[in-house]
Structure formats: C-alpha cells, structure tokens
Design brief:
The structure is a single chain. With about 350 residues, this protein is α/β, with parallel strands linked by helices. The chain has a single domain, classed as NAD(P)-binding Rossmann-like Domain (Rossmann fold), CATH 3.40.50. It has an 8-stranded parallel β-sheet, with helices on both faces. Strands 7-10 form a two-stranded parallel ribbon. α1 links the parallel β1 and β2. α3 packs parallel to α5 and α7 packs across α11. It is globular and about 55 Å long. Bound molecules: nicotinamide-adenine-dinucleotide (NAD) and UDP-4-deoxy-4-formamido-beta-L-arabinopyranose (WQD). The site of UDP-4-deoxy-4-formamido-beta-L-arabinopyranose has 18 residues, from α7 and β8.
Length: about 350
C-alpha cells in the first residue's frame, strides 16, 4: 500500500514508519515539526537504508492539505498529527481544538475528495478519563477530563460520523495506553522539547544526569505500593499494531476501535526499579503530592485487539526500560546532540 503518515516525524509515527517500510509498504511522511525535528528524517534514512519520502505540511493549512491530496494517491492515511500535552491543553484549549480537530476535519475532507478510503487514527486511553474499573474494555463509559482528551473524543466521534455517512470509508481508532521505549537501534526515541510531563522520559533524563530527581506524584493511592498504576506499552509493539490495523481495514473491510496496551498494570515505583536495573543507574526520587486529575489505576483489557487483529504486546517492562535507556544514553540530549548538517537531512529526504 501507499500510506501517508500525518505527524510521522513524531515519536510514535517514526517508529511506525520503520515497521511499515519493513513490511514492504511505500510510506510518505507529512509533518510541520511542531513537536519534532527534521533530524528524525535523517535517522529514519539510516535505519531503513532508503531516502525518506517527505512532504512539509501543516494540517491547519486547508488549501495546502487539499492541494497535496489533489496530486497524490494514497491507499490509507495514519493520522498521528496532534498536540498532546494535557497541561498545555488546559492553558491553551483553543489551540488544541484548532490543531487537533480542525486539522482532522481538513484531512478527512481532502481524503474524501481524493477518494482515499482508509484512516488509522491515534486515539488514546484518555477517552476513558478516570475509569470506574480496570481492566478497561472498549465499551467502558467515555468521559474526558481535559481539553486534550476532549479533542481525542471529538475526533473519534467525527470519524464515526464520516464512516456512517459513507459505508465504503473505513477507519480504525487505536486507543493507546502509555507508549514508552524506543527503536532497538538506539537511533529513534522519545525526545520531549520541554520538561517531560510523562513518566518514562522524565526517568530517562534523571538517569542520564539531566535532572536531579524524579518527583513521584502520590504515594498514597489504593494500589499495592501506593503509587499510580498504568499500562506501559513498548512503542515497537504499538507500531506493529498500526500495520495490523491497516491489514484489517483492507482484509476484513470493517471499522475498528481497539485498546492497545499490554493488559498489565505497572506502578511508578515498579517502573523506577525496572529502569534502575536495566540502566545500572540510580534513579533518585522523592514522593510528593498527587498530580491533579491523575487516576490511581488505568490498564487495558487488550483482548479485542488480540481477537480482531491477532495482535498482542510482546515486549515486557524490562525491554521497555532497556530500549528507552539505550536511546537516552546514546542521545543524552535527544536528536539535537547528534545533529547532522541540514544538507545531510536534505539528502536523506525525497520531497513528495
Ligand atoms: P509527537 O508530538 O511526538 O508526534 C506528533 C507529530 O505530529 C509531531 O511530529 C508534530 O510535529 C506533528 N504535528 C502536530 N501538529 C501538526 C500539524 N498541525 N500539522 C502537521 N504535523 C503536526 O506525539 P506522539 O507521542 O508520537 O503521539 C502521536 C499521536 O498519538 C498523537 O495524536 C497523540 O495524541 C497520540 N497519543 C500519544 C500518546 C503518548 O503518550 N505519546 C498516548 C496516546 C495517544
Ligand atoms: C504516568 C504515571 C503519574 C510523571 C498521559 C496522558 C494520556 C496519554 C499518556 C496521550 C502517573 C506518574 C508522571 C512524573 C510521576 N497521552 N508520574 N512523576 O498521566 O497516565 O497519561 O500520557 O494521549 O492522555 O494523560 O502518563 O506518564 O504522565 O504518568 O509520578 O514526573 O506516572 O502520576 O501515575 P498518564 P504519565
């Protein structure tokens, strides 16, 4: 298939690129680098051994999106492009609505006009808010607790409406739990531009010496060790699920909404210890107050993804920590540190 990855230069998009290329697809990346670096493209060329087809595109630029689709043919789009910081979304809700929701509307309109028949959408466990019970199944009540989450829920709903209006259009909503880890090469990984708000990149930066200590938000949750429990999933397992979802849309010709998690809850403290073991580094921490809005325990029931896609997570928490550490120790300052010259990036890319 010829597949467009909107937001494909980001953390999950670039890992997914490697899996799709490995499976023999022709893959094109479109991104505006709002939260990523062109350096990723040079790394992708290194990993895959081929120039990376790339189109600079801002999803908010409706004429630009229309023009691109008018002259390109795709069998499917995977839509990663979104702003994703929960705290920032509370400060700048309109920017989140514009970027995430308007961008998705323009994308869907251009896809409909160009007759692109399939969409895989990056949804999130955030649509469950604070779940009533765990493990969380796809039919659990949806109730979001912040503007970022609201954009994900609205986007799922508007994609559903498009599917109802056109019985030939196919879409997959993939509800990711907590993606972590990195590509086994150590060349690709998560590289937050600001202070990390997520746990794993924060731990990585403490272990590599960029930050003094981790603050663990809450030690008095009703969980076995008092710290919050989440379903961390290796980004390469997640990447593989995108390829499987695309196959499902083609072969089964049905729409899809599935959780992508391991089904295993890991506490903050367990992750800290697993990381310390994998990296042979100390991860100093202190326990502080709970972070407002955090649930005690969120983990997936991934049975539906296994049943429909034949997919299940294979990499355990030790592999997640080992690969995250390989990335962080090889790139202590992320993509910026091992920077290649701009003309090298240009050589790595074939503009589409
Ligand atoms: P990321 O920020 O690394 O990647 C998103 C990419 O989209 C970036 O390269 C960014 O530059 C690009 N982008 C943003 N707005 C754009 C626009 N208007 N036009 C073009 N490109 C744009 O994030 P990620 O972690 O790779 O997440 C990918 C998707 O998965 C997002 O939709 C996110 O909401 C969703 N998701 C992420 C997580 C997580 O914890 N990482 C969990 C659940 C869901
Ligand atoms: C995990 C655990 C924290 C940082 C968020 C979004 C969600 C999804 C994934 C996009 C919690 C604790 C964290 C720190 C800590 N993203 N923690 N110290 O909150 O489960 O989910 O990212 O869709 O929408 O809300 O992930 O990594 O922020 O937190 O103790 O410095 O680590 O309290 O228990 P979360 P997280």
């Amino acid at each position: 298939m010829r597949i467009l990855l909107c937001g494909g230069a980001g953390y999950i998009g670039c890992h997914t690129y490697t899996v799709l290329v490995e499976r023999g697809h022709q893959v094109v990346i479109a991104d505006n680098f709002a939260n990523s670096s062109p350096q990723v493209l040079a790394r992708l060329e290194q990993v895959t051994g081929k120039p990376v087809p790339f189109h600079p595109l801002d999803m908010r630029d409706r004429p630009g999106v229309d023009a691109f689709f008018a002259r390109q043919t795709f069998d499917a789009v995977v839509h990663f492009a979104a702003l994703k910081a929960v705290g920032e979304s509370c400060e700048r809700p309109l920017d989140y609505f514009e970027n995430n929701i308007s961008g998705t509307i323009y994308l869907l309109q251009a896809m409909r006009a160009a007759g692109v028949p399939r969409l895989v959408f990056s949804s999130s466990a955030t649509v469950y808010g604070e779940p009533e019970s765990v493990p969380v199944r796809e039919d659990a009540p949806l109730r979001v607790t912040n503007p970022y989450g609201r954009t994900k829920l609205v986007m799922e709903e508007l994609i559903g409406d498009v599917c109802r209006a056109d019985p030939h259009f196919r879409a997959a909503n993939l509800r990711y739990f907590n993606p972590v880890g990195a590509h086994a090469s150590g060349l690709l990984g998560e590289d937050p531009s600001d202070t990390p708000s997520n746990l794993m990149p924060y731990i990585c930066q403490v272990a590599v010496g960029r930050r003094e200590k981790l603050r663990i938000f809450g030690g008095d949750y009703p969980t076995p060790d008092g710290t919050g429990v989440r379903d961390y999933i290796h980004v390469m397992d997640l990447a593989r699920a995108h390829a499987d979802a695309l196959d499902y849309l083609v072969n089964e010709d049905r729409n899809l909404t599935v959780n992508l998690g391991t089904g295993r809850g890991i506490s903050v403290m367990e992750l800290v210890h697993a990381f310390a073991k994998a990296s042979s580094r100390e991860v100093p921490y202190e326990i502080v107050d709970r972070r407002p809005g955090d649930a005690a325990e969120v983990y997936a029931d991934p049975a539906l993804a296994q049943r429909l896609l034949g997919w299940r997570a294979e990499l355990d928490v030790d592999a997640m920590c080992r690969d995250a550490w390989r990335w962080q120790s090889m790139n202590p300052y992320g993509y910026a540190a091992g920077r290649v010259e701009e003309d090298r990036v240009e050589e790595a890319v074939s503009l589409v």
